[in-house]
Write a structure and sequence with these properties.
The complex is a heterodimer of chains A (375) and B (119). With 375 residues, chain A is mainly α. Chain A has 17 helices and four strands. Chain A has helices at residues 3-6, 27-42, 69-86, 91-107, 115-128, 137-155, 158-162, 164-173, 177-182, 190-209, 216-233, 242-249, 267-280, 310-319, 322-338, 343-359, 364-369, and strands at residues 261-265, 286-290, 299-303, 306-309. Chain A is globular, with a radius of gyration of 23 Å. Chain B has four helices and five strands; from the N terminus they run ααββαβαββ. In chain B, a hairpin with a 5-residue loop joins β4 and β5. Chain B starts with a helix and ends with a strand. Classes of the chains: A mainly alpha (375), B alpha+beta (119).
Chain lengths: 375, 119
Amino acid sequence: MDLAGIISNSADPRGKPWRVVGTAMVPNTLLMGKLVFLLLLSQNFLGKIRDPLVPFIPFLDVFRAWPGLFENVLLALFLGAGVLLLMNITVRPASVVLGLVVMLDLLASKPLFRNHLFICGCLFLLAGLHRKDERPWMIYLQMSVIYLGAFLNKMLEPDWHTGQFMHNWLLNARANPFYEAVYPLLPDLWLAKLLGWTAIASEVAMAVCFLVPRTRALGVWIGLIFHGGLFVMLLGENFGHFLEDILLAYLAFLAWPRSGMQARASAAVREWLVPLLRVLDWDRQIELEAGTGSPRVWLTASFDGRTLENIAALRSLLRYSAGFYVILCVWYVVALRLITPPFGFVAVVLTGAALLLLFLPIPWGSIRRWKPSVC
Amino acid sequence: MNRVRRLSPGHWLGLAFLLMQLVSIGYARFVPERFFCWAPYDAHSRYQVTIEVDGAQLSPDAIWDRYHYRANAWEPRSVYNLFSIIRQYESTYGKDENARVTVRYSINGHPERLWIWPE
Protein backbone atom coordinates (compact mmCIF):
# COMPACT_ATOMS: atom_id res chain seq x y z
CA MET A 1 0.00 0.00 0.00
CA ASP A 2 1.26 3.52 -0.83
CA LEU A 3 1.98 5.18 2.51
CA ALA A 4 2.09 8.64 0.97
CA GLY A 5 -1.46 8.01 -0.17
CA ILE A 6 -2.60 7.14 3.32
CA ILE A 7 -1.06 10.23 4.86
CA SER A 8 -1.25 12.96 2.26
CA ASN A 9 -2.14 16.62 1.94
CA SER A 10 -5.76 17.57 1.30
CA ALA A 11 -7.49 20.78 0.22
CA ASP A 12 -9.98 23.28 1.61
CA PRO A 13 -10.04 23.40 5.45
CA ARG A 14 -13.37 25.28 5.69
CA GLY A 15 -16.02 23.37 7.60
CA LYS A 16 -13.41 21.02 9.08
CA PRO A 17 -12.81 22.05 12.68
CA TRP A 18 -9.95 19.59 13.18
CA ARG A 19 -7.86 21.33 10.49
CA VAL A 20 -5.50 24.26 11.18
CA VAL A 21 -3.42 24.43 7.98
CA GLY A 22 -4.45 26.42 4.91
CA THR A 23 -6.48 29.23 6.52
CA ALA A 24 -5.81 32.97 6.77
CA MET A 25 -3.98 32.41 10.08
CA VAL A 26 -0.68 30.80 10.98
CA PRO A 27 -1.59 27.17 11.88
CA ASN A 28 -0.29 27.21 15.45
CA THR A 29 -1.94 30.55 16.21
CA LEU A 30 -5.24 29.25 14.90
CA LEU A 31 -4.82 26.08 16.96
CA MET A 32 -4.17 28.24 20.01
CA GLY A 33 -7.31 30.29 19.33
CA LYS A 34 -9.51 27.22 18.93
CA LEU A 35 -8.22 25.67 22.13
CA VAL A 36 -8.60 28.92 24.09
CA PHE A 37 -12.21 29.17 22.84
CA LEU A 38 -12.92 25.58 23.93
CA LEU A 39 -11.18 26.25 27.25
CA LEU A 40 -13.44 29.26 27.88
CA LEU A 41 -16.52 27.19 27.04
CA SER A 42 -15.38 24.46 29.43
CA GLN A 43 -14.83 27.07 32.17
CA ASN A 44 -18.38 28.44 31.85
CA PHE A 45 -17.35 31.74 30.30
CA LEU A 46 -20.86 31.98 28.82
CA GLY A 47 -22.18 32.27 32.38
CA LYS A 48 -19.80 35.17 32.96
CA ILE A 49 -21.15 37.21 30.06
CA ARG A 50 -23.73 39.51 31.60
CA ASP A 51 -25.11 43.01 31.66
CA PRO A 52 -22.80 45.75 32.94
CA LEU A 53 -22.26 45.91 36.69
CA VAL A 54 -19.88 48.52 38.11
CA PRO A 55 -18.18 49.00 34.72
CA PHE A 56 -14.72 50.44 34.15
CA ILE A 57 -16.31 52.70 31.52
CA PRO A 58 -19.30 54.38 33.21
CA PHE A 59 -20.97 54.92 29.82
CA LEU A 60 -21.66 51.16 29.63
CA ASP A 61 -24.22 51.63 32.42
CA VAL A 62 -26.65 52.91 29.76
CA PHE A 63 -27.25 49.27 28.75
CA ARG A 64 -28.80 48.61 32.15
CA ALA A 65 -31.89 50.40 30.80
CA TRP A 66 -32.46 47.40 28.48
CA PRO A 67 -31.92 44.29 30.64
CA GLY A 68 -30.48 41.36 28.69
CA LEU A 69 -29.60 43.32 25.54
CA PHE A 70 -25.87 43.72 26.22
CA GLU A 71 -25.60 40.18 27.54
CA ASN A 72 -27.39 38.53 24.63
CA VAL A 73 -25.54 40.51 21.97
CA LEU A 74 -22.19 39.55 23.50
CA LEU A 75 -23.30 35.92 23.85
CA ALA A 76 -24.36 35.76 20.20
CA LEU A 77 -21.14 37.41 19.03
CA PHE A 78 -18.99 35.12 21.18
CA LEU A 79 -20.70 31.93 20.07
CA GLY A 80 -20.98 33.00 16.42
CA ALA A 81 -17.32 34.04 16.19
CA GLY A 82 -16.25 30.91 18.06
CA VAL A 83 -18.09 28.62 15.64
CA LEU A 84 -16.58 30.48 12.66
CA LEU A 85 -13.11 30.11 14.16
CA LEU A 86 -13.63 26.40 14.80
CA MET A 87 -14.96 25.91 11.27
CA ASN A 88 -12.04 27.79 9.67
CA ILE A 89 -14.32 30.44 8.17
CA THR A 90 -13.14 34.10 8.25
CA VAL A 91 -10.80 33.10 11.02
CA ARG A 92 -9.01 36.41 11.50
CA PRO A 93 -12.14 38.58 11.95
CA ALA A 94 -13.62 35.82 14.12
CA SER A 95 -10.58 35.86 16.39
CA VAL A 96 -10.68 39.67 16.65
CA VAL A 97 -14.40 39.56 17.54
CA LEU A 98 -13.73 36.95 20.24
CA GLY A 99 -11.03 39.18 21.69
CA LEU A 100 -13.27 42.25 21.63
CA VAL A 101 -16.14 40.36 23.29
CA VAL A 102 -13.90 39.17 26.14
CA MET A 103 -12.47 42.68 26.58
CA LEU A 104 -15.88 44.35 26.48
CA ASP A 105 -17.25 41.85 28.99
CA LEU A 106 -14.37 42.67 31.36
CA LEU A 107 -14.68 46.42 30.82
CA ALA A 108 -18.40 46.20 31.60
CA SER A 109 -17.91 44.55 34.99
CA LYS A 110 -15.18 45.34 37.52
CA PRO A 111 -16.13 42.37 39.74
CA LEU A 112 -15.49 40.05 36.79
CA PHE A 113 -11.93 41.22 36.24
CA ARG A 114 -9.56 38.27 36.24
CA ASN A 115 -6.11 38.09 34.67
CA HIS A 116 -6.93 34.62 33.31
CA LEU A 117 -9.79 36.12 31.27
CA PHE A 118 -7.84 39.21 30.28
CA ILE A 119 -5.06 37.10 28.75
CA CYS A 120 -7.62 35.17 26.65
CA GLY A 121 -8.93 38.44 25.23
CA CYS A 122 -5.37 39.56 24.43
CA LEU A 123 -4.52 36.29 22.67
CA PHE A 124 -7.69 36.29 20.53
CA LEU A 125 -7.30 39.93 19.56
CA LEU A 126 -3.60 39.81 18.67
CA ALA A 127 -3.86 36.44 16.90
CA GLY A 128 -6.52 37.86 14.60
CA LEU A 129 -4.46 40.95 13.77
CA HIS A 130 -1.57 38.98 12.24
CA ARG A 131 -1.24 38.08 8.58
CA LYS A 132 -0.77 34.43 7.68
CA ASP A 133 2.67 35.09 6.19
CA GLU A 134 4.24 36.36 9.40
CA ARG A 135 5.19 35.02 12.79
CA PRO A 136 2.81 36.17 15.57
CA TRP A 137 5.32 38.70 16.86
CA MET A 138 2.69 40.77 18.69
CA ILE A 139 1.89 37.69 20.80
CA TYR A 140 5.60 37.44 21.62
CA LEU A 141 5.46 41.08 22.75
CA GLN A 142 2.26 40.34 24.68
CA MET A 143 3.95 37.54 26.61
CA SER A 144 6.86 39.83 27.39
CA VAL A 145 4.47 42.54 28.65
CA ILE A 146 2.69 40.01 30.88
CA TYR A 147 5.87 38.87 32.57
CA LEU A 148 7.26 42.41 32.72
CA GLY A 149 4.12 43.51 34.58
CA ALA A 150 4.23 40.51 36.88
CA PHE A 151 7.94 41.09 37.57
CA LEU A 152 7.56 44.82 38.28
CA ASN A 153 4.54 44.38 40.53
CA LYS A 154 6.35 41.76 42.60
CA MET A 155 9.69 43.54 42.59
CA LEU A 156 8.13 46.69 44.04
CA GLU A 157 6.25 44.83 46.79
CA PRO A 158 8.39 44.65 49.98
CA ASP A 159 6.44 41.58 51.13
CA TRP A 160 7.87 39.66 48.17
CA HIS A 161 11.43 40.56 49.23
CA THR A 162 10.97 39.49 52.84
CA GLY A 163 9.09 36.27 52.07
CA GLN A 164 6.01 37.59 53.90
CA PHE A 165 3.74 37.22 50.84
CA MET A 166 4.85 33.67 50.09
CA HIS A 167 4.71 32.63 53.75
CA ASN A 168 1.17 33.95 54.23
CA TRP A 169 -0.04 32.52 50.92
CA LEU A 170 1.41 29.02 51.29
CA LEU A 171 0.90 28.62 55.03
CA ASN A 172 -2.28 30.53 55.90
CA ALA A 173 -4.20 30.68 52.62
CA ARG A 174 -3.32 27.31 51.14
CA ALA A 175 -1.95 25.17 53.99
CA ASN A 176 0.51 23.76 51.46
CA PRO A 177 1.90 20.46 52.85
CA PHE A 178 5.33 20.86 51.20
CA TYR A 179 5.76 24.35 52.65
CA GLU A 180 4.39 23.36 56.06
CA ALA A 181 6.93 20.52 56.25
CA VAL A 182 10.03 22.36 55.05
CA TYR A 183 9.78 25.98 56.21
CA PRO A 184 10.33 25.25 59.96
CA LEU A 185 13.66 23.59 59.09
CA LEU A 186 15.09 26.86 57.76
CA PRO A 187 15.56 30.16 59.63
CA ASP A 188 14.06 33.56 58.87
CA LEU A 189 11.56 32.56 56.12
CA TRP A 190 14.42 31.39 53.87
CA LEU A 191 12.19 29.03 51.93
CA ALA A 192 9.58 31.74 51.33
CA LYS A 193 12.32 34.14 50.20
CA LEU A 194 13.85 31.52 47.92
CA LEU A 195 10.50 30.75 46.29
CA GLY A 196 9.63 34.45 45.94
CA TRP A 197 12.94 35.42 44.39
CA THR A 198 12.81 32.38 42.08
CA ALA A 199 9.43 33.62 40.80
CA ILE A 200 10.73 37.16 40.35
CA ALA A 201 13.88 35.97 38.54
CA SER A 202 11.89 33.60 36.30
CA GLU A 203 9.46 36.34 35.31
CA VAL A 204 12.10 38.91 34.42
CA ALA A 205 14.02 36.23 32.49
CA MET A 206 10.92 35.39 30.47
CA ALA A 207 10.10 39.06 29.86
CA VAL A 208 13.56 39.53 28.33
CA CYS A 209 13.77 36.17 26.52
CA PHE A 210 10.45 36.69 24.69
CA LEU A 211 11.73 39.98 23.27
CA VAL A 212 14.84 38.51 21.65
CA PRO A 213 14.33 36.08 18.73
CA ARG A 214 17.31 33.89 19.66
CA THR A 215 16.14 33.38 23.25
CA ARG A 216 12.40 32.85 22.71
CA ALA A 217 12.67 29.07 22.93
CA LEU A 218 14.63 29.46 26.16
CA GLY A 219 11.83 31.70 27.46
CA VAL A 220 9.26 29.02 26.69
CA TRP A 221 11.34 26.39 28.52
CA ILE A 222 11.71 28.67 31.55
CA GLY A 223 7.93 29.21 31.45
CA LEU A 224 7.14 25.51 31.18
CA ILE A 225 9.41 24.65 34.09
CA PHE A 226 8.25 27.64 36.18
CA HIS A 227 4.51 27.08 35.69
CA GLY A 228 4.88 23.29 35.78
CA GLY A 229 6.82 23.56 39.04
CA LEU A 230 4.09 25.75 40.57
CA PHE A 231 1.42 23.28 39.42
CA VAL A 232 3.27 20.42 41.12
CA MET A 233 4.16 22.29 44.30
CA LEU A 234 0.62 23.64 44.70
CA LEU A 235 -0.89 20.20 44.00
CA GLY A 236 -2.81 21.12 40.87
CA GLU A 237 -3.49 24.86 41.38
CA ASN A 238 -4.15 26.45 37.99
CA PHE A 239 -4.94 30.05 39.06
CA GLY A 240 -8.41 30.20 37.54
CA HIS A 241 -7.28 28.87 34.19
CA PHE A 242 -4.19 31.09 33.89
CA LEU A 243 -1.93 28.03 33.68
CA GLU A 244 -3.86 26.61 30.72
CA ASP A 245 -3.96 30.04 29.02
CA ILE A 246 -0.20 30.38 29.30
CA LEU A 247 0.48 26.87 28.00
CA LEU A 248 -1.79 27.49 25.01
CA ALA A 249 -0.13 30.86 24.38
CA TYR A 250 3.20 29.06 24.08
CA LEU A 251 1.81 27.38 20.93
CA ALA A 252 2.32 30.73 19.20
CA PHE A 253 6.09 30.26 19.57
CA LEU A 254 6.18 27.20 17.32
CA ALA A 255 7.67 27.73 13.87
CA TRP A 256 5.08 25.64 12.01
CA PRO A 257 6.37 24.25 8.65
CA ARG A 258 5.37 26.46 5.74
CA SER A 259 4.68 23.67 3.27
CA GLY A 260 4.19 20.27 4.83
CA MET A 261 6.74 17.76 6.05
CA GLN A 262 8.40 14.79 4.40
CA ALA A 263 9.30 11.90 6.66
CA ARG A 264 11.23 8.70 5.92
CA ALA A 265 11.19 5.80 8.35
CA SER A 266 12.71 2.34 8.66
CA ALA A 267 10.37 -0.64 8.33
CA ALA A 268 10.23 -1.26 12.09
CA VAL A 269 9.41 2.37 12.84
CA ARG A 270 6.74 2.58 10.12
CA GLU A 271 4.81 -0.14 11.91
CA TRP A 272 3.94 2.19 14.78
CA LEU A 273 4.45 5.55 13.07
CA VAL A 274 1.75 5.11 10.40
CA PRO A 275 -1.07 4.51 12.90
CA LEU A 276 0.36 7.20 15.20
CA LEU A 277 0.31 9.82 12.44
CA ARG A 278 -3.20 8.78 11.45
CA VAL A 279 -4.25 9.72 14.97
CA LEU A 280 -2.20 12.91 15.31
CA ASP A 281 -1.72 14.51 11.88
CA TRP A 282 -5.23 15.83 11.29
CA ASP A 283 -4.10 18.13 8.48
CA ARG A 284 -2.45 15.29 6.59
CA GLN A 285 0.58 17.52 6.08
CA ILE A 286 3.13 14.76 6.70
CA GLU A 287 4.17 12.58 3.76
CA LEU A 288 5.71 9.36 5.01
CA GLU A 289 7.96 7.27 2.79
CA ALA A 290 9.85 4.03 3.29
CA GLY A 291 13.58 3.75 4.04
CA THR A 292 16.01 6.25 5.51
CA GLY A 293 19.05 5.19 3.48
CA SER A 294 21.20 4.54 6.56
CA PRO A 295 21.03 1.78 9.20
CA ARG A 296 22.03 4.34 11.87
CA VAL A 297 19.01 6.50 11.07
CA TRP A 298 15.55 5.15 11.89
CA LEU A 299 13.59 8.30 11.07
CA THR A 300 14.10 11.55 9.18
CA ALA A 301 11.84 14.58 8.89
CA SER A 302 12.39 17.29 6.28
CA PHE A 303 10.66 20.67 6.20
CA ASP A 304 11.50 24.27 5.34
CA GLY A 305 14.84 23.24 3.84
CA ARG A 306 16.22 21.29 6.79
CA THR A 307 16.31 17.62 7.72
CA LEU A 308 16.23 16.20 11.21
CA GLU A 309 17.11 12.66 12.26
CA ASN A 310 15.88 10.11 14.79
CA ILE A 311 14.61 11.58 18.09
CA ALA A 312 14.78 15.15 16.75
CA ALA A 313 12.69 14.05 13.76
CA LEU A 314 10.15 12.34 16.01
CA ARG A 315 9.89 15.48 18.15
CA SER A 316 9.15 17.52 15.02
CA LEU A 317 6.47 15.14 13.77
CA LEU A 318 4.71 15.42 17.14
CA ARG A 319 5.36 19.14 17.58
CA TYR A 320 3.76 20.04 14.25
CA SER A 321 0.67 17.81 14.49
CA ALA A 322 -2.49 19.54 15.72
CA GLY A 323 -3.92 16.27 17.02
CA PHE A 324 -1.02 15.90 19.44
CA TYR A 325 -2.03 19.05 21.34
CA VAL A 326 -5.77 18.37 21.21
CA ILE A 327 -5.29 14.86 22.59
CA LEU A 328 -3.04 16.24 25.35
CA CYS A 329 -5.72 18.78 26.27
CA VAL A 330 -8.41 16.10 26.34
CA TRP A 331 -6.17 13.90 28.50
CA TYR A 332 -5.53 16.82 30.89
CA VAL A 333 -9.25 17.48 31.30
CA VAL A 334 -10.14 13.80 31.69
CA ALA A 335 -7.34 13.20 34.21
CA LEU A 336 -8.17 16.17 36.42
CA ARG A 337 -11.95 15.96 36.22
CA LEU A 338 -12.81 12.30 35.82
CA ILE A 339 -10.02 10.33 37.50
CA THR A 340 -10.27 10.06 41.29
CA PRO A 341 -7.92 12.48 43.09
CA PRO A 342 -5.01 12.35 43.57
CA PHE A 343 -4.48 9.82 40.75
CA GLY A 344 -5.58 12.27 38.05
CA PHE A 345 -3.11 14.87 39.30
CA VAL A 346 -0.34 12.25 39.44
CA ALA A 347 -1.18 11.13 35.89
CA VAL A 348 -0.94 14.72 34.61
CA VAL A 349 2.39 15.28 36.39
CA LEU A 350 3.84 12.03 35.01
CA THR A 351 2.65 12.94 31.51
CA GLY A 352 4.22 16.38 31.83
CA ALA A 353 7.50 14.92 33.09
CA ALA A 354 7.60 12.40 30.22
CA LEU A 355 6.98 15.17 27.69
CA LEU A 356 9.69 17.34 29.24
CA LEU A 357 12.16 14.47 28.92
CA LEU A 358 11.11 13.81 25.34
CA PHE A 359 11.16 17.42 24.16
CA LEU A 360 13.99 18.97 26.18
CA PRO A 361 16.80 19.41 23.64
CA ILE A 362 18.99 16.73 25.22
CA PRO A 363 21.26 14.81 22.78
CA TRP A 364 20.28 11.35 24.03
CA GLY A 365 22.46 9.60 21.41
CA SER A 366 25.62 11.37 22.58
CA ILE A 367 24.87 10.56 26.20
CA ARG A 368 24.42 6.87 25.37
CA ARG A 369 27.77 6.80 23.52
CA TRP A 370 29.59 8.68 26.32
CA LYS A 371 31.95 6.60 28.44
CA PRO A 372 33.59 7.94 31.61
CA SER A 373 37.35 8.25 31.25
CA VAL A 374 39.62 6.57 33.82
CA CYS A 375 42.33 8.79 35.29
CA MET B 1 12.25 51.82 8.37
CA ASN B 2 10.97 49.32 5.78
CA ARG B 3 9.53 47.23 8.58
CA VAL B 4 7.60 50.22 9.91
CA ARG B 5 6.25 50.90 6.40
CA ARG B 6 5.09 47.28 6.13
CA LEU B 7 2.95 47.58 9.25
CA SER B 8 -0.75 47.25 8.47
CA PRO B 9 -3.58 49.06 10.32
CA GLY B 10 -4.07 45.80 12.25
CA HIS B 11 -0.48 45.93 13.42
CA TRP B 12 -0.85 49.53 14.58
CA LEU B 13 -4.01 48.55 16.43
CA GLY B 14 -2.19 45.66 18.13
CA LEU B 15 0.78 47.84 19.03
CA ALA B 16 -1.53 50.51 20.46
CA PHE B 17 -3.24 47.79 22.52
CA LEU B 18 0.13 46.63 23.87
CA LEU B 19 1.16 50.21 24.57
CA MET B 20 -2.02 50.72 26.62
CA GLN B 21 -1.04 47.75 28.75
CA LEU B 22 2.40 49.27 29.36
CA VAL B 23 0.74 52.54 30.35
CA SER B 24 -1.53 50.58 32.68
CA ILE B 25 1.50 48.89 34.28
CA GLY B 26 3.04 52.32 34.81
CA TYR B 27 -0.23 53.84 36.10
CA ALA B 28 -0.49 51.05 38.68
CA ARG B 29 2.60 52.52 40.38
CA PHE B 30 0.51 55.54 41.39
CA VAL B 31 -2.77 53.91 42.50
CA PRO B 32 -3.44 51.04 44.92
CA GLU B 33 -5.82 49.16 42.56
CA ARG B 34 -4.39 46.52 40.22
CA PHE B 35 -6.59 46.21 37.13
CA PHE B 36 -5.24 45.41 33.63
CA CYS B 37 -1.61 45.62 34.80
CA TRP B 38 -0.64 41.94 35.07
CA ALA B 39 -0.48 41.77 38.83
CA PRO B 40 -1.94 38.39 39.76
CA TYR B 41 -1.07 37.11 43.22
CA ASP B 42 1.08 40.10 44.08
CA ALA B 43 -0.78 40.47 47.37
CA HIS B 44 -2.98 37.99 49.15
CA SER B 45 -5.58 39.41 51.51
CA ARG B 46 -8.08 37.86 53.87
CA TYR B 47 -11.21 40.01 54.03
CA GLN B 48 -14.73 40.10 55.40
CA VAL B 49 -17.43 42.46 54.16
CA THR B 50 -20.41 43.51 56.26
CA ILE B 51 -23.16 45.83 55.01
CA GLU B 52 -25.87 47.55 56.92
CA VAL B 53 -28.85 48.98 55.02
CA ASP B 54 -31.60 50.71 57.04
CA GLY B 55 -30.22 49.17 60.22
CA ALA B 56 -30.36 45.61 58.88
CA GLN B 57 -27.28 43.53 58.04
CA LEU B 58 -27.19 41.90 54.60
CA SER B 59 -26.53 38.18 54.39
CA PRO B 60 -23.48 36.81 52.47
CA ASP B 61 -25.83 35.84 49.61
CA ALA B 62 -27.27 39.35 49.47
CA ILE B 63 -23.72 40.75 49.41
CA TRP B 64 -22.91 38.44 46.48
CA ASP B 65 -26.01 39.63 44.65
CA ARG B 66 -25.02 43.24 45.28
CA TYR B 67 -21.33 43.24 44.26
CA HIS B 68 -20.85 39.84 42.59
CA TYR B 69 -18.08 39.35 45.14
CA ARG B 70 -17.90 36.94 48.05
CA ALA B 71 -18.47 38.40 51.50
CA ASN B 72 -15.75 36.46 53.25
CA ALA B 73 -12.79 35.16 51.26
CA TRP B 74 -9.17 35.43 50.19
CA GLU B 75 -8.47 38.08 47.56
CA PRO B 76 -5.57 37.01 45.33
CA ARG B 77 -5.25 40.47 43.77
CA SER B 78 -5.08 43.88 45.48
CA VAL B 79 -7.80 44.23 48.10
CA TYR B 80 -8.15 47.82 46.86
CA ASN B 81 -9.86 46.35 43.78
CA LEU B 82 -12.68 45.34 46.13
CA PHE B 83 -12.80 48.81 47.71
CA SER B 84 -13.03 50.30 44.22
CA ILE B 85 -16.03 48.10 43.39
CA ILE B 86 -17.83 48.95 46.64
CA ARG B 87 -17.08 52.67 46.30
CA GLN B 88 -18.40 52.78 42.72
CA TYR B 89 -21.49 50.70 43.50
CA GLU B 90 -22.46 52.70 46.57
CA SER B 91 -21.94 56.04 44.86
CA THR B 92 -24.04 55.05 41.83
CA TYR B 93 -26.60 52.21 41.97
CA GLY B 94 -26.78 52.16 45.78
CA LYS B 95 -26.60 55.93 46.29
CA ASP B 96 -30.09 56.24 47.77
CA GLU B 97 -29.80 53.26 50.11
CA ASN B 98 -27.23 54.95 52.38
CA ALA B 99 -25.52 51.64 53.04
CA ARG B 100 -22.79 51.43 55.65
CA VAL B 101 -20.09 49.03 54.49
CA THR B 102 -17.25 47.69 56.61
CA VAL B 103 -14.39 45.61 55.28
CA ARG B 104 -12.04 43.94 57.75
CA TYR B 105 -8.92 42.88 55.92
CA SER B 106 -5.39 41.65 56.40
CA ILE B 107 -2.87 41.98 53.56
CA ASN B 108 -0.23 39.23 53.39
CA GLY B 109 -0.83 38.24 57.00
CA HIS B 110 -0.17 41.70 58.43
CA PRO B 111 -2.33 43.01 61.32
CA GLU B 112 -6.01 43.44 60.49
CA ARG B 113 -7.26 46.81 59.25
CA LEU B 114 -10.64 48.36 58.61
CA TRP B 115 -12.06 50.09 55.55
CA ILE B 116 -15.38 51.84 55.94
CA TRP B 117 -17.88 53.28 53.46
CA PRO B 118 -18.85 56.14 53.42
CA GLU B 119 -15.16 57.10 53.57
